[in-house]
Amino acid sequence: MQLAVNYTTAYHYAEDAQRIVQLLRVTPSSFTGQAVLDWRIDVDCDARLREGRDGYGNVTHMLYIDRPVRSLAVTIAGRVLTEDRHGIVQGLPHDLPPDIFTRVTPLTAAGPAIIELAGWTRKGKESTLSKLHRLAGRLHETMRFDTDATGIDTVAEQAFAAHHGVCQDFTHVFIATARHLGLPARYVSGHLFRRDGMLVQEAAHAWAEAWIEDLGWTAFDAVNGICTDDAYIRIACGLDYRDAAPVVGARSGGGAEDLAVEVKVSEAAPQAQAQSQN
Questions:
Q1: Of 78, 107, 175, which Cα lies nearest the Cα of 135?
Q2: Which of 48, 192, 211, 274 could disulfide-link to 64, CB 3.0 to 4.6 Å?
Q3: Does domain 2-82+246-268 fall into CATH 2.60.40.2250?
């Protein structure tokens, strides 16, 4: 499937911001099942962008604004060709040994509720793959998606005990459970094409990847209770949200800030597909 992304983050400041520095993790890489056709970052004011790559292999851009501004809009637009590989992730251009992703972080520490969930997941003689499918399914069924219930500092144990949260929380709970079982697991940020017709979304998406012997990295979206398919665009990964957040930044001045995010993920029109092949 050919997917088109248009993702805008707009800031408005009560006073002039004198200097802004941001780390952007918004650019995907090509690998088996995902081919980046074109991708660009546009900034609506005078700014410098410096491309790099972090320790997890994610494409990064440092954004620098060195003059006073009262507003800032960063727009990401691009097209990606995706293939349904039933969640199996192979051919990443840069990666780390799986054992790196057994490390527990404050956001993914297992408390009593997650330890009990891990015990439930461990039961039975199913394969590791089947157990992780069952785990994703249980989170999908028992946790309620609620954008007002948690924040970026909410830890996995809190979210699961309360049985609600956003994609970040579902993912942290899945990762915490998998790591408690001794399985490498990591956080992935990206985009999701909504087949229900909802093209405009308020944020990017997130899911988990777990290392399964004989399969390798396999991606699970606990919000929807499935493995990822051709509706997903993988952008960045890390131990938890903080390593893969799309935007991290700092500024001097500016006072109060209003932030608006709009993400549009759509299927490219057949005519656009035909033109891209000529």
A1: 175
A2: 48
A3: yes
- Can you tell me whether residue 227 is helix, strand or coil? strand
Tokens of 172: 């942290």
How many CB atoms sit inside 10 A of residue 155's CB? Answer: 21
Beta bridge partners of 217: 89, 211
Location of structure tokens 């099942």: 33
Give the span between the Cα atoms of 271 and 273, in whole angstroms: 5
94 CB neighbour count, 10 Å cutoff? 13
**86 CB-near residues (< 8 Å, 6+ apart):** 227, 229
Q: Does the domain made of 88-244 have the CATH classification 3.10.620.30?
A: yes
**CA–CA distance, 42 with 10 (Å, rounded to integer):** 12
User: What ranges do the domains of the chain cover?
Assistant: 2-82+246-268, 88-244
Point out which residues pair with 71 in neighbouring strands: 12
Beta pairing partners, 35: 81
State CA 180 to chain mean position distance: 22
pLDDT tens-digit profile, the chain (278 residues): 999 999 999 999 999 999 999 999 999 999 999 999 999 999 999 999 999 999 999 999 999 999 999 999 999 999 999 999 999 999 999 999 999 999 999 999 999 999 999 999 999 889 999 999 999 999 999 999 988 878 889 999 999 999 999 999 999 999 999 999 999 999 999 999 998 878 888 889 999 999 999 999 999 999 999 999 999 999 999 999 999 999 999 999 999 999 999 999 999 875 444 444 44
Q: CB of 238 within 8 A of CB of 253?
A: no
Classify 253 in phi/psi space as left (phi over 0), alpha (psi -120 to 50) or beta. Answer: left
